[in-house]
Design a protein that fits this description.
The complex is a heterodimer of chains A (185) and B (198). Chain A is an alpha+beta fold and 185 residues long. Chain A has helices at residues 9-17, 22-34, 36-55, 65-73, and strands at 106-107, 112-116, 125-132, 147-153, 156-158, 161-163, 168-171, 180-181. Chain A has one domain (9-56, 84-181): Jelly Rolls (Sandwich). Helix content of chain A is 28%, strand content 18%. In chain A, the strands form three sheets. A three-stranded antiparallel sheet of chain A has the order 1-2-3. In chain A, a hairpin with an 8-residue loop joins strand 2 (112-116) and strand 3 (125-132). Helix content of chain B is 68%, strand content 4%. Classes of the chains: A alpha+beta (185), B mainly alpha (198). At the A-B interface, helix 1, helix 2, helix 3, helix 4 and strand 3 of A face strand 1, helix 2, helix 3, helix 4 and helix 5 of B.
């Protein structure tokens, strides 16, 4: 998979810092799952956190903290939460346990369907799937803030070029674009 | 065509002075379940993680709990650490960050956990460059301190104080675009060093 459209560096930095709410984090994690190059950049960004942690001022731990840790280390680990397998990248699978085709689509104009994905966060962002028929315009889903759009399959084209699987459009509110879904994709 | 989309609505002196490299301590835990290596890692990192958690908005008790959780995760997952995941400090930072998202912000850290599984599955084994990784981190830390004050400020507010970019903009009374451009400039300064990590 060749990724040509990457998130803005400041978007990746927010992901690395961990300040995004769930909808952002899901879209970026899914993109990174599809992009080896993106994961390399994320490793580099995480080193900023590593260096800052090294430099952090030490704050005295309560007495007994080490004993508490060593006692806890003897306890067996809880089984890991396993994400069900699905035809979507792993970070998206908890939201679509039965894959793309099982999504509950809502008609949203000719050739366009939308499926809202519920998130745990009480965030001010919305996570949704879009399905757009070939040759149809991709609907605007922004309401005046940042928007991230990640292509899972197929492609669309706008004035920024062709966006295929793994490509992400990372736009501020002031970006005007009119993406059209590609034929035969 | 299918797409997934989202949009908005609207110094180093330590008590006990452990003698071994953190990467070697992680290996001792992974291979031998060595609890004295866990003690040493706790002495190296516990008080620093607590400092980060307090700055992230945790109270004293929660910060202590998050240190415990972080170190316990290090103990249990040490076998998954490899140098391709960065220096030990970087790996421990990401563990602390994920717990902070989950417990301090009460947000889902699931995307991070699932991405980590993707990485483990796709990672080529790598056995070298442990020492170089730590040296690079030391150089990154020097470079961070050499950044212009306004860039250092936004990097700290984001990575350590755990504040969203839009909130940083509000606090500093600057446009969101300025917060983002300061972060991009900081990355450009650090980039040559960070690329040495690969």
């Amino acid at each position: 998979m060749t990724i040509t459209h990457h998130p803005d560096m400041s978007t990746l930095m927010a992901f690395s810092a961990g300040t995004f709410d769930e909808p952002y984090a899901v879209v970026i994690a899914t993109h990174l799952a599809m992009s080896e190059g993106g994961r390399d950049i994320m490793h580099r960004l995480n080193a900023i956190g590593g260096a800052l942690l090294d430099d952090e001022q030490e704050t005295e731990m309560s007495s007994g903290a080490l004993d508490r840790l060593l006692a806890a280390a003897d306890q067996p680990d809880l089984p890991e939460q396993i994400t069900p397998s699905s035809d979507v990248p792993l970070p998206l699978a908890p939201y679509l346990p039965n894959g793309l085709t099982s999504a509950k689509w809502k008609w949203s104009g000719p050739g366009v369907a939308i499926c809202d994905l519920p998130t745990r966060d009480e965030s001010s962002s919305r996570l949704m799937l879009l399905r757009v028929a070939a040759g149809r315009p991709v609907p605007e889903h922004s309401h005046g803030g940042q928007e991230l759009t990640l292509i899972l399959s197929g492609a669309y084209r706008d004035r920024f070029g062709l966006f295929g699987p793994g490509d992400i459009a990372d736009h501020d509110e002031d970006v005007e674009h009119k993406p059209i879904a590609e034929m035969g994709a | 065509m299918y797409a997934i989309a989202m949009s908005e609505i609207g110094s180093g002196k330590n008590l006990g002075t452990p003698s071994t490299e953190p990467a070697a301590l992680l290996r001792l835990i992974a291979e031998q379940g060595d609890k004295s290596a866990l003690s040493d890692l706790f002495l190296l990192y516990g008080a620093k993680i607590k400092g980060v958690m307090l700055k992230s908005g945790a109270n004293e008790a929660l910060a202590e709990d998050l240190v415990q959780e972080t170190m316990l995760t290090v103990w249990r997952k040490a076998g998954l650490y490899s140098t391709s995941r960065g220096a030990p400090s970087t790996w421990i930072f990401t563990i602390a960050r994920n717990l902070r998202i989950d417990q301090l912000r009460r947000r889902s850290n699931r995307p991070y956990e699932d991405l980590a599984r993707v990485e483990i599955a796709s990672e080529a084994p790598s056995g070298s460059a442990v020492v170089e990784q730590s040296q690079v981190i030391a150089r990154v830390s020097l470079a961070l301190k050499a950044l212009p004050a306004e860039q250092q400020e936004v990097v700290h507010l984001s990575f350590i104080n755990d504040i969203a970019h839009s909130e940083i903009a509000t606090r500093l009374g600057i446009p969101l675009g300025t917060v983002k451009s300061r972060l991009r400039l900081a990355y450009d300064r650090l980039r040559p060093l960070l690329e040495d990590l690969q």
